[in-house]
């Protein structure tokens, strides 16, 4: 892979590592100050809400700021805010800790445009025939960071305090900013000047105009609802009430799921030529096995079997996701990719917040197995959409 792709992944990896580390530290700090799990849970809620708002508003900047500078500027802004957070932590108390939420909301708002822009810039730096491999590498790094850094972040808190951890994150964010700065400029987005409302609508109009993107947006809504069963609160209850084992198995099953994602990414990298030639078939296979394994998971009472099924769900989920990214990236002109990805990001973050609450209520009313059963049934719908429209799931070359 070329220098720009390497710099992009390096910068984004350091940023995502920093995001996980500071989140671990802040959750720990809020819980220690308040003794309230609800207060601590507002950390991820605040982050998700701010990222949703950012996803909606990002299109306003897409045609005004070059993507490289938008990505660099957002990361530099995050660096500045994390420094402010580090300075504030020396004065934090149970009477002013709410200010932490304002700071992390600002960090998350700036972060909201980063992932869509990264996905938009990959095809700018990578040849079309290498997109599957490039997306596989990007996903591997992302999932590896998510898998390892929650564990590493907890270990860090044994050796250093939260304020020191935040300064480590500040250094990671600063290096990430430098990596983004060193990227070559991508081609300017040639978009006609429109009203702010029209700019926000642009991504949605593109989604609805192109048949395959319209189907992917629908799938994204359904899959996001289905995926909420894997949030910590629901999975923890499943381990306790359905598997009847202690809480360490929550970590095992969660880790197994992320390991499956990594293996799926590696598979797509190793066999990228095969995947490239059969994008639609691979997506269908990934979706079909995802719903079958999820249904089996909802019925099992054996922790070892649950562990293996969780691995399978991660593997086949990634087997579907990576070719799907390639189809999105090749279905629209490069200058429209950013607004398409921000629209899809707004869909997933917006639906996720509401669906998480709804799934929690269903789990309380009907038992935790019921939500995994619902998840499997929703994934059947996704599979049927892919099967009926498989002719659309092909890689196009759109300049």
Describe this protein's structure.
- It contains 17 helices and no strands.
- It is mostly helical and 399 residues long.
- Helix 1 (3-34) runs antiparallel to helix 8.
- It is globular, with a radius of gyration of 21 Å.
| Helical residue percent band | over 70%
Sum up the overall morphology in one term. globular
Q: Could you state the order of secondary-structure elements as H and E?
A: HHHHHHHHHHHHHHHHH
Calculate the mean pLDDT score and round it: 82
Described by strand count, sense and barrel closure, the largest sheet is: none
Find the structural class using helix and strand composition.
mainly alpha
Name the assembly state. Answer: single chain
Terminal CA distance: 21 Å
- The number of strands is 0
Question: How would you sum up this structure in a few lines?
Answer:
The protein has 399 residues and is mostly helical. The chain is built from 17 helices and no strands.
List keywords for this structure.
399 residues, mainly alpha, 82% helix, single chain
How is the topology of this model organized?
Layout: H1 3-34, H2 37-57, H3 59-62, H4 67-88, H5 98-111, H6 114-125, H7 131-159, H8 162-181, H9 196-209, H10 211-227, H11 232-241, H12 248-270, H13 272-277, H14 279-299, H15 303-331, H16 334-366, H17 368-388
């Amino acid at each position: 892979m070329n220098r720009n792709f390497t710099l992009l992944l390096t910068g984004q990896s350091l940023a995502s590592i920093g995001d996980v580390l500071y989140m671990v530290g802040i959750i720990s700090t809020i819980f220690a100050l308040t003794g309230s799990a609800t207060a601590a849970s507002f950390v991820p809620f605040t982050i998700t809400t701010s990222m949703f708002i950012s996803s909606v508003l990002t299109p306003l900047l897409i045609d005004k700021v070059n993507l490289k500078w938008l990505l660099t500027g957002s990361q530099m802004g995050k660096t500045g805010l994390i420094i402010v957070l580090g300075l504030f932590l020396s004065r934090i108390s149970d009477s002013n800790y709410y200010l932490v939420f304002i700071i992390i909301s600002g960090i998350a708002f700036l972060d909201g445009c980063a992932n869509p822009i990264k996905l938009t810039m990959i095809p700018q730096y990578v040849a079309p025939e290498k997109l599957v491999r490039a997306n596989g590498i990007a996903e591997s790094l992302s999932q590896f960071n998510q898998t390892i850094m929650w564990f590493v972040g907890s270990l860090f808190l044994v050796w250093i305090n939260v304020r020191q951890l935040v300064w480590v994150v500040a250094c990671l964010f600063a290096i990430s900013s430098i990596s983004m700065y060193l990227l070559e400029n991508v081609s300017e987005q040639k978009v006609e000047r429109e009203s702010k409302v029209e700019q926000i609508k642009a991504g949605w109009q593109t989604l609805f105009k192109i048949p395959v993107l319209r189907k992917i947006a629908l799938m994204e809504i359904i899959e996001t609802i289905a995926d909420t069963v894997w949030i910590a609160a629901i999975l923890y209850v499943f381990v306790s009430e359905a598997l009847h084992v202690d809480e360490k198995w929550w970590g095992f099953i969660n880790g197994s799921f992320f390991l499956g994602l990594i293996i799926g990414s590696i598979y797509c990298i190793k066999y990228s030529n095969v995947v490239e030639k059969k994008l639609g078939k691979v997506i269908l296979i990934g979706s079909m096995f995802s719903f079958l394994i999820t249904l089996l998971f909802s019925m099992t009472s054996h922790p070892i079997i649950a562990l293996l099924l969780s691995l399978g769900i991660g593997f086949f989920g990634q087997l579907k996701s990576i070719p799907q990214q390639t189809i999105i990236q090749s279905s629209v002109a490069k200058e429209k990719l950013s607004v398409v990805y921000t629209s899809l990001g707004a869909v997933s973050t917006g639906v996720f917040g509401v669906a998480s609450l709804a799934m929690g209520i269903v789990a309380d009313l009907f038992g935790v197995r019921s939500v995994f059963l619902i998840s499997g049934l929703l994934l059947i719908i996704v599979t049927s959409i892919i099967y009926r429209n498989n002719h659309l799931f092909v890689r196009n070359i759109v300049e």
